[in-house]
Design a protein that fits this description.
With 421 residues, the protein is α/β, with parallel strands linked by helices. Helix content is 38%, strand content 23%. The protein has 12 helices and 15 strands. The strands form 3 sheets. The protein has a 7-stranded mixed sheet with strand order 6-7-5-8-9-11-10, sandwiched between helices. A hairpin with a 5-residue loop joins strand 10 and strand 11. 31% of the residues are buried.
């Protein structure tokens, strides 16, 4: 596992403009500070495509060497993903640790993880990242020498490291499968009890945890920093119309979230993919808020949550001039955006109103009569509907009054229904 930078470590940042696109430089600075390092100098440049050996050219390599000596820096952070060979070549040439964007994000996650599950997920992501970066360090144990008396041991140190890494990865995966099963049981219980789930998603540092605390009267950690929240938190929340919800605060997203993290945090991110509604929290004061919305939607697509209904929540309007709390509706009269300030509480009652309108419109009350032959339909209704009243008739059937979500009315397509006002 790569070493985590110590607090106060001095870092040289490398940020290139590439034809294939670029990351945000200010975001790299925030990531660096969040990891506990101090950005002392930024080296910028542009290339048509990365150099296959060092990612950068020889001129930039000399510039980094000079900056390392002048600023007495300890580490070089690239705002780009590096291949294992590029990372090794750069460390050899510069004689300091080189960490790419993915490694930097993994390091921040390692510092933020608090729960047993979160630590397991971060370790799994780190090990997967490390497994591609093993180097041949013990050449004196190399067995490919040939000849009697010159053959090495049965297993090289590199092979031993790979085998131990593989064993640890499998061990963590087995533990996470058990955690995933426990989460799945909780979700199934909530669905059976017809308790809607709402997950807060959004770009990191958009104010999700502050909004979560304001709505649910919780005191989870919230700070003006990237990835302040890592472990998911669930709380019950009752909206204006009396409907009970389960509110989930999830990890913040970021541009090009490392694949190792997406894979490792599958069970955590599943809270979003299986939610009934996503509250997509947006920093209304951010200059690139449209870009962050796009990036969050990209991650949601990666975790197969793009089809879950969304309600956009434009947060931090206290930092905007002339913007009052309000709700935007679509042509069908459904709320699509809520403008508020989670920090001051202004407009949070409008979010409550919007949630009441959304969930009130999804529930309907119906009366129906089932024959004895339709016992299977009755069994499924107990899974997907709330039974308000049930009475048996003289023929072994049932008269039911149910509250059911509109999307589950298909279960009763063969049954004559009576609307209840």
């Amino acid at each position: 596992m790569f070493e985590r930078p110590d607090a106060g470590e001095r870092a040289i940042l490398v940020h290139l403009t590439l034809q294939a696109g670029q990351e945000d430089l200010e975001e790299l600075k925030e990531l660096t500070r969040s990891a506990g390092a101090e950005p002392v100098h930024v080296i910028t440049g542009s290339r048509y495509r990365p150099d296959p050996k060092n990612f950068i050219g020889s001129g930039k390599l000399d510039e980094i060497k000079q900056a390392l000596e002048f600023y007495q820096a300890d580490i070089v952070l690239f705002n780009h993903p590096l291949s294992p060979s590029q990372e090794r070549n750069l460390e050899t040439a510069l004689d300091v640790r080189v960490v790419d964007r993915n490694g930097l994000i993994l390091d921040i996650f390692a510092q933020r993880a608090q729960t047993f599950e979160g630590k397991l997920q971060v370790e799994l992501a780190q090990l997967r990242h490390l497994s591609t970066r093993l180097v041949r360090g013990w050449t004196h144990l190399e067995r490919q020498k040939g000849g009697i008396g010159l053959r090495g041991p049965g297993e090289t140190q590199l092979e031993t490291d790979r085998r131990l890494l593989g064993m640890r990865i499998k061990q963590i995966q087995r533990r996470l499968v058990k955690v995933d099963k426990q989460r799945g049981q909780g979700r199934r219980k909530r669905k059976k009890a017809e308790i809607p789930s709402v997950s807060l998603v959004g770009y990191t540092n958009a104010g999700k945890s502050t909004l979560f605390n304001t709505l649910t009267q919780s005191d989870i950690y919230a700070a003006n920093q990237l990835f302040a929240t890592l472990d998911p938190t669930l709380r019950q929340y009752r909206i204006q119309n009396g409907t009970e919800l389960v509110m989930a605060d999830t990890v913040g997203f970021i541009r090009h979230l490392p694949h190792e993290l997406v894979a490792a945090f599958k069970s955590t991110l599943q809270e979003a993919s299986e939610a009934d509604l996503l509250l997509h929290v947006v920093d209304a004061n951010a200059a690139d808020r449209d870009e962050t919305i796009f990036q969050v939607n990209q991650v949601l697509e990666d975790i197969k949550a793009s089809t879950v209904p969304q309600l956009l929540v434009y947060n931090k309007i206290d930092l905007l001039d002339g913007v009052a709390p309000h709700i935007d509706y679509d042509d069908e009269g459904k709320p699509v955006r809520v403008w508020l300030s989670a920090k001051t509480g202004d407009g949070c009652e409008l979010l409550d109103q919007a949630l009441s309108e959304i969930f009130a419109s999804q529930k309907v009350i119906r009366k129906c009569v089932l024959s004895a032959k339709q016992a299977g339909i009755r069994a499924r209704l107990f899974d997907y509907a709330r039974i308000l009243h049930e009475q048996t008739d003289d023929f072994g059937g049932w008269k039911l009054k149910i509250e059911i979500d509109k999307k589950h009315l298909g279960l009763l397509k063969e049954v004559e229904l009576e609307e209840v006002g």
